[in-house]
Amino acid sequence: MPNAAAVAALIRGDFPQLNGAQLAQALQDGALRLGSTLPDAAFGYGRVDALGALATLPAPTITALTDSTIDDGSSTPPVSFTVSGSGRLHLAAASSNAALVPPSIVAAGVAGVTVAPADCGVTTMTCTVSVTPALAQGGTATITLSALDGANRTASATLTVTVTNPTAPPATTPPPTATAPTPAPASHGGGALSWFELACALGLLFPRVSRAQRTG
Q1: Which helix (H) or strand (E) holds 144?
Q2: What is the span of the domain harbouring residue 35?
Q3: Are 67 and 160 spatial neighbours (Cβ–Cβ below 8 Å)?
Q4: Is 179 among the domain residues?
Q5: In this predicted model, what pLDDT tens digit does every residue of 182-214 receive, in sequence order?
Q6: Do both 69 and 85 map to the same domain?
Q7: Whole-model pTM?
Q8: Distance between CA 159 and CA 157 in Å, rounded?
């Protein structure tokens, strides 16, 4: 009984939507049979088995996706797909060319993979997927869309996106080069002497007359 309770707790942790009756059914159907009858008088339904119980719950499935060829600056048309499984499913995306298509699920119009509606895999099982490449990029990317359940069991589908006619990236203007400041012209005002004043001060233009010459 403790082993059965432990396995039930593991299953319930991965699939919290299961009720008590559904958990008991999974344990019974997934048990390793030991007796000749089911249930056996001595062994009941057999030995409890965690993997066997998990195997009784449907694993995720996802339908095929359609490839697309588009021009740069546009998104692929929405492609319909259907997922199924046990409990809430989580969707994830991978890309073989992350520079062209980022490997993430994003809102519509943003570079990456868009899945609609937002509750796809939870309450809505028929959904759409579209791909928006990065701008000014060309080439091919293989997108893998995966559906995962609470036990991380996965189902995947791929689509190939080819982007043609990529536009050139916008030109960048180099920053202006720094130039040395132009020295300011020398000022002749204030306390600075002009060449004329300097020459006079040195007696070059008007040499002094000696006292003897003035009195002679």
Answers
A1: strand 139-148
A2: 2-55
A3: yes
A4: no
A5: 666 555 555 555 555 555 555 554 555 444 454
A6: yes
A7: 0.73
A8: 7
